[in-house]
Amino acid sequence: MRKTILSIVTALAAVASTLVVLTGPAQAHGYISSPPSRQANCAQGRVANCGPIIYEPQSVEGPKGQRNCHGGLSQFAQLSDESKPWPATSVGQNVTFNWVLTARHATSTWEYYIGNTRVAVFNDGGRQPGATVSHNVNLGGFSGRQRLLAIWNIADTPMAFYSCVDLQIGGGGGNPQPTPTPTVTPRPPSPTPTVTPPPAGGTWRTGTYYATGSTVTYGGATYRCLQAHTSLAGWEPPNVPALWARV
């Protein structure tokens, strides 16, 4: 009888362990919001047919040591599809990468790669990061269109978060010939346009893209967006001061 009970308990433990592994990615919590990463572009509708990543851009969590955009997760494989029209952000030699974290896991290191070259590493020594993290990375020696892979290595698990960013470094890296100065015909000055502040976005909702400066109401209070993002459950304005400021 005892052997039967022990066998049942062992089987249940194995099932529970499997469920934890299977549900791990859904609990993942971090991606680069600017310059927009591939998952950010998917979540904001800038790239079509991205699959389930549009609902959970923060969920690219896979074993450490991956060198792909989808963290080795088959459900997010489209992030590594180079045939997609990924927008490239024009940048200079120094770029600040901004992470949005919905769970502040203790961190060992942050790594940045272009191809097989690690261009930067930041060591947090196991500390817990804030709700947002920024790193300034020098991309000297690279030019033109490049795909940068950023990796957030968790300190107390064998997992990491992956985020790819497409960049156009230095305007393409070429040496164009000087363009002759065109002859300009004077025209009457145009009237000064009236600048209208961003309209109120109504009540805060999940699954909605909010631009920097837009405002929403939540819990009877008004909040202004500090950083463009697509809202997710758990990112209610009072909970993420890095994204929203009460007006």
UniProtKB/TrEMBL annotation:
Q: State the residue spans of region: Disordered.
A: 172-203
- Show where the Chitin-binding type-3 domain sits: 201-247
Task: Cite a single Pfam family from the UniProt record.
Answer: LPMO_10
- List the keywords (alphabetical): Hydrolase, Signal
Naturally occurring in which organism (per UniProt):
Herbidospora galbida
Q: Which GO terms describe its cellular component?
A: extracellular region
CDD domains annotated for this entry?
ChiA1_BD, LPMO_AA10
Listed GO MF terms: carbohydrate binding; hydrolase activity, hydrolyzing O-glycosyl compounds
**Protein name according to UniProt:** Cellulose-binding protein
Extent of Pro residues compositional bias? 177-200
Under SUPFAM superfamilies, the record lists: Carbohydrate binding domain (SSF51055), E set domains (SSF81296)
Per the record, the GO terms for biological process are: carbohydrate metabolic process
Q: Which residues does UniProt assign to the signal peptide?
A: 1-28
